């Protein structure tokens, strides 16, 4: 800021410092907290740090916040996500009884009811993001016995358990690896501890209360790119016609094929391309590789220009359904 003096003589400018305040507001907790009161001069803690210490609780002789309910991993198959909208800052528990404590440190006999679906939400504002349910060890062993020992069709097992075929295939594969490691004595005590800890943290899949959507099919890669088709208003256009536009089979045939062969049938096994590497001298800077390909499918015709900057450029679709510029044709 610029100011002037009114004394006799020429006015001389005087610069006064101006402090610009930020418009940002400190995000204090919305729930009631303890008042800090008067502190000593050597205490330089801010209000936010003081409130954070209230949330964490006191440290023990190991430097751990054992009285905070988020300190240890859950052991009752229920996720222990932070729920600020429900707990109102009551994150401390009594070490003897395990009951929550209020702001003053008194034990609360009753707590607010929390819906089971709410406990599976890691983000309070996103109800569509929920933790998946883990299969019990008994269900995994039963699935492995039915599929590998009793030779029960995997489609029948999927219907009886209410689990998708890809998940059943993954369970069978992991059980095979587990049994192989047991024979080789490769499962150490650390692996067992880690497995049991993770098993107690996740909710369990209970039959017949929980079930997967068995009519769901994997999303084809070709449908990730939109395609436009001009048709008459009176012309019928259904799902089968849409599948023909994307060069796909109808969903009913895909479900039938998945039920007969499993999820691995949707994965296309492409043949390895033949590659020839030319000999190179020690001083050569480049290595030439020759791939086997058909004329017209790769590269461009000599002398033809790309029309990617023209208004009337042509488009085509590759094998994955992605829209690309059409290659120039010869002639």
From TrEMBL:
One of its GO terms (molecular function) is structural constituent of ribosome. It holds the Pfam family Bot1p. GO terms for cellular component: mitochondrial small ribosomal subunit. GO terms for biological process: mitochondrial translation. It comes from the Eukaryota. PANTHER family: 37S RIBOSOMAL PROTEIN S35, MITOCHONDRIAL, SMALL RIBOSOMAL SUBUNIT PROTEIN MS45. This is 37S ribosomal protein S35, mitochondrial.
């Amino acid at each position: 800021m610029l100011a002037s003096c009114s004394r006799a003589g020429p006015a001389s400018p005087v610069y006064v410092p101006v402090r610009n305040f930020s418009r940002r507001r400190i995000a204090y907790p919305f729930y009631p907290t303890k008042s800090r009161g008067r502190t000593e001069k050597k205490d330089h803690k801010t209000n936010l740090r003081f409130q954070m210490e209230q949330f964490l609780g006191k440290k023990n002789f190991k430097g751990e916040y054992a009285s905070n309910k988020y300190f240890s991993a859950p052991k009752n198959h229920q996720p222990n996500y932070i729920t600020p909208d429900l707990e109102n800052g009551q994150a401390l528990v009594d070490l003897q009884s395990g009951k929550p404590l209020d702001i003053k440190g008194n034990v609360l006999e009753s707590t607010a009811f929390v819906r089971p679906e709410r406990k599976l939400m890691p983000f309070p504002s996103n109800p569509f993001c929920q933790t998946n349910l883990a299969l019990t060890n008994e269900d995994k062993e039963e699935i492995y016995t039915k599929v590998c020992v009793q030779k029960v069709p995997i489609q029948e097992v999927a219907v009886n358990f209410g689990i998708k075929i890809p998940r059943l295939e993954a369970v069978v594969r992991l059980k095979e690896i587990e049994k192989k490691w047991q024979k080789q004595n490769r499962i150490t005590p650390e692996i067992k501890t880690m497995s049991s800890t993770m098993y107690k943290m996740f909710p369990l899949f209970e039959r017949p209360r929980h079930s997967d959507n068995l009519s769901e099919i994997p999303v084809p890669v070709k449908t990730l790119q939109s395609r436009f088709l001009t048709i008459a208003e009176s012309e019928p256009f259904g799902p089968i016609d849409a599948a023909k536009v994307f060069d796909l089979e109808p969903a009913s045939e895909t479900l039938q094929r998945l039920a007969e062969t499993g999820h691995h049938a949707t994965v296309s096994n492409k043949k390895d391309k033949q590659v020839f590497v030319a000999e190179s001298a020690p001083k050569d800077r480049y290595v030439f590789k020759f791939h086997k390909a058909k004329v017209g499918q790769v590269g461009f015709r000599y002398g033809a220009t790309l029309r990617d900057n023209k208004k009337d450029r042509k488009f085509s679709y590759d094998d994955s359904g992605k829209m690309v510029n059409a290659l120039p044709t010869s002639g």
